[in-house]
Amino acid sequence: MKENKQKMSGADIFFECLRKEKVEYIFGYPGGAVLKLYEKLYDVDFLEHILTRHEQGATHAAEGYAKATGKVGVVLVTSGPGATNTVTGIADAYMDSIPIIVFTGQVPTKLIGNDAFQEADIMGITRPITKHNFLVRDVKELAETIRKAFFIASTGRPGPVLVDLPKDVINSVCEFEYPEKVEIRGYKPTFLGHQNQIKKAAEMLKKAKRPLLYVGGGVIMSGGTRELYLLAKENNLPVTMTLQGLGAFPGTDDLSLGMLGMHGTYWANQAVNSCDLLIALGARFDDRVTGKVETFSLKSYKIHVDVDPTAIDKNILVDLPIVGDVKHVLAELASEMDEHPDISDWWKQIEKWKKECPFELDANDGKLRTQFVIEKISEKTKGEAVIVSDVGQHQMWIAQHYKFVHPRSHLTSGGLGTMGFSVPASIGAAFGVKDRPIISISGDGGFQMNIQELITAVAHKLPIKFMVINNSFLGMVRQWQELFHAEKYSFTDLSKSNPDFRKVAEAFGLAAFSTDNPKEVESLLDEAFAINDRPVFIEFKVVKEDMVFPMVPAGASIGEMMTKRLNPKTMV
Amino acid sequence: MKHTISVLVENRFGAFNRVATMFSGRGFNVHSISIGETEDPEISRMTLVTSGDDQIIEQVVKQLNRLIDTIKVVDLTGQPRIERELALITVFYQKGTRPELTNICDIFRGNIVDINNKTLTLEITGPPDKIDAALNVLAQYGIKEIARSGTVALKRGEQAKIQPKISTTKEKEKV
Q1: Is the pTM for the entire model greater than 0.90?
Q2: How buried is residue A178: exposed, middle or buried, by Cβ count under 10 Å (0-12/13-18/19+)?
């Protein structure tokens, strides 16, 4: 039976496709090449368009939405500068495997290559930083391309996809048909892990004396946190998490060793160094985790579970690779565990490490410190908030001191390390998550990188708590300058050039507070959490010179942690 | 160690660029790339010659597979295969050296495809080391210009169904 298909414009097809994909929000910014889309958007009622104030903000917002919900984040911007402004967000999503789709306007196909007004070769620019990108050259390909874009972005190892839409394609008409199935012969992500490999992994785990689970963001993305919990609990296994893995396993649980790597816990890194079985789950042995690769976890048999084959043997050679969906592999692995390893001595050793080098929380000098602020936020929210951190010292302190209990609660730019991520990403998260508090925490440097998006939060009355940890320095750079660059504090001191953040926030229309007194922190948090009809701003003026410890210096082995401040001249 | 890798890619806009971008972005070596249509006009075959230790080659193959536009990746190294390259070599000649050059051309089973009053152009086909040998001998006469196609390769035996056309290195991008 042949249906009588209606002819539709490219713009109508575009929105019909988004309707089929159940898109709830578009983060975007209008412009010449996408005027037709915005004309249609005016009457679209099944999704909401969020106007950010910069296209970079739109991409980070889409990332925040995607990471907090697991759904695909959608961005719509115009050609040329609109498109190039999305580049940082796309690169960020690529590094952290976040499913977003960026629709960019493009000049009419006839003008492509002519240096037309607001033309940029965004296909060429984004090829190395997208999972895939498409230029739609004919309206007949539009629906299928959008279908493919959603499929590619959200399956396998997720990632950003860009779809370039020339103006004439959007304006022309054709019959609309949305393909039910997608078939891409060059793209068949492996889903099921190899049975025999999983059996072998279980055998190794049963006889392990010092096993360790090394958990990355892949466990959260695959939705495998429940499976991880069961495997760890039933077998009493220690769990350490990467920056992106935080939240995959409750930080409040006794089995959690916290984060590993450069600013990880001393005991987690010692455990990595001494374990006899290391099971990497949806993690990629990033250089911030491994330190010097030649000395990384030399005594261990290594099992690596990842959906992306390129992650395996890339940085660290492993003994047993399992390519597949982590959730599925975890469930299979747990079901193979008919006996449990005896590791009580291993736990004794870990407890010993915990006592050897605990976090130093407070100097008891009455001054406000970031660690203290984070601890208070963690207590106040019982670890249940969605924390959107920026990049730098505060990010590491959050990773160390906030006890995440749920997955999709810790949103941060890990791979690319994008300052300015937090403010817009928290806005995206606030649209996706309504039942938990959303807290954006930035340093005074990063906060100024996308400060314009505060108005987006105000315009939508989002109850986000925007917090700035103000130490009047680009703190992490300052830390490296003190430790490794002869104390030359080159262009990192902002004490004379920061704005009055409280006034700025007030001008944007936020309820704004500021303090430098540790005694006021709790009452301020209470006050801030009582306001839910608009965003709130709190500035914490903290001491300038604090450094994040423990720390593995770049290029050193993770066993050689610097646990306290050393004299930079003598390094002792 | 040098590896010859055969890649079937979608014959469409940007596919070649994706491979080239991936190589440069990840710092992999490329000695030659050649690309041409296969018996299926929707598929191109790309032959890449790269080098690196086993871990790097494993990454090269995996990263190639990871690209959405690649359909099949085969490392032909160590397998029975046919490898060919085509070179056009323009050499200076004097009165006395022309017969010598014709003779060298015959030894390498090449053809003389062009001549003027100063130079002649040889066409030589074969495995890359044969071309290197020919160039070595021709160098003493004074080489004016060289164009090499880059290696094309196929597995021997029943798998070798697809015969790529030879095309010039790095220029066969479909636009």
Answers
A1: yes
A2: middle
